[in-house]
Amino acid sequence: MSGTPAAARACILAAVLCAIWCTLPAYAPDTPVPWGTAVLLAALGLGCEAAGRRSPSGGPGPVAAGAFLPLLIAASFLLPPAAAALVAASGSLAGRVEQPPYAARRIWRAAQLALTCAAASWAYAALGGPATLGGGGAAPDFPRALLPACAAALAFSLVLTALDGLVLAAAERRPVHRSVSALLPLALGPHLVHALAGLMAAVLWRSPYGPLSALLVLLPMYLSCWVFAQYHREQAAHRATIRALVHAVDIKDTYTRGHSERVGRASVLIARELGMDDRRVEGLRFAGILHDIGKLGVPTRVLRKDGPLTPEERRIMELHPEYGHEIVRGIGFLDEARDAILHHHERLDGSGYPYGLSGSRIPESARVVAVADAFDAMTSTRSYRRARPVSAALAELKRCAGSQFDPRMVGALDRALGRHGWSEADTAVTADEPRAPYVSREPQGPREPQGPREPQGPHGPRESYGAPAGVRQDAPPVPRARSAAPLSGPSRDRRR
């Protein structure tokens, strides 16, 4: 506990002393404690904790914290407060702790659960809960048994969140009332469900069928907790994988830092507006975040070059969707996000890359990410130009709808932004430091006719949002070879 703040150590010591004080009545010779029930419940609690401790760190375990709350609440219904506190503490001391300081966390958790179970048992007994359980030939008293059970759940939540708030205030100097107000609404619902499961287990425990019948309630609930924890740990692993990949791109190409997360948010807005199910929405969020992961395969000298890219360098940059697809091909949970990563630079008219797909041949997910990508590029401040207003960016997307972008996706983004807006946090500066704009020093003289030149930035050709100065807005575009010069349109930034 040497690394624990002094205030936190004092809080833990006070909780331990209170927990010991709560268990003292159990040792009094005149206190009627059903030791057989207490020992059996403690053994079940130890089994739950041991199962959680044996599962690999970060892997699927029975429950996140190890303790099986329906069992602890059932102990609060079946035992007096002192014995319920002993049951909770005995199992918690054997549980797994994943973060240091291990000893302090284990001791705190044991004291916290002991006090919580004692409080729940006191509340339950004060409202006459034990008399409603039946047993000894008497039938359980429903629905009157629900009132003390709900009161016990409320006491369980209040004490647990209050203790969490105290230790956070001691260790991290968080206001206690803010911690409690944030934790209590999240804890109350699950604890009420656990209390109902614990009540049913306690009723069966007191029934003629005995403790074995109670396991018929507790075991399915325990397995449900196991599956729930497995799912959430798997999701946490997915998020960690995505964060690691995005961080790798940000390190290599700091110029567009933050761009990926904003493209992910814009992709989610479009997907939800189109009525996609949650699975596809999550997949498109991953696709937007990882759409530029292929930059890891592009030489750093190309990504960070000061000045326009040569045709050969543009061809290298245009390989980044294929590199990205290769990088994520083996990540199963990305699903259709892989298609979006590969095809998000395709255009509806077939002039995009890497394969020149057109129309409906472009995957729907790629059409979503293409619009989100171009929108963020236009509304983000770059070192060579200021961000465009959202309205101007939407107008440019609409102008290019049908030739470059899917009009359905552009309309969905327009409607979504009308409802939700696009905050300043979503249009943050993407370059780490402002840099002097690149000034072309090409020799003056006769030149071959070319299409409208794109705005130049410190990293070469950038997005051309509409016609440059001196070029009519209604002037027809001049055809250019795909590999010789960048095409016009919002998505022609070879750094995106």
Question: What would you say this structure looks like, in words?
Answer:
With 496 residues, this protein is mainly alpha-helical. The chain has 17 helices and two strands. A hairpin with a 2-residue loop joins strand 1 (456-457) and strand 2 (460-461). Helix 5 (102-126) runs antiparallel to helix 6 (146-172). The longest helix has 42 residues, at 211-252. The protein is elongated and about 90 Å long. The model is unreliable at 56-66 and 424-494 (pLDDT under 50).
Helices and strands, with pairings:
Elements lengths: L5 H18 L11 H20 L14 H10 L2 H12 L9 H25 L19 H27 L3 H31 L4 H42 L6 H15 L4 H13 L9 H4 L7 H7 L2 H9 L8 H7 L20 H16 L10 H11 L6 H14 L35 E2 L2 E2 L35
Antiparallel strand pairs: 1-2
Helix pairs in contact: 1-5, 1-6, 2-3, 2-4, 3-4, 3-5, 3-7, 4-5, 5-6, 6-7, 7-8, 9-10, 9-15, 9-17, 10-14, 13-14, 14-15, 15-16
Key features of this structure:
496 residues; mainly alpha; two-stranded antiparallel ribbon; 2 strands
Helicity, as a percent range? 55-70%
Widest beta sheet: strand line-up: 1-2
Q: What composes the largest sheet?
A: 2 strands, antiparallel
Q: Please report the total strand number as a whole number.
A: 2
Structural class: mainly alpha
Q: What is the chain-wise order of helices and strands?
A: HHHHHHHHHHHHHHHHHEE
Rounded Rg: 31 Å
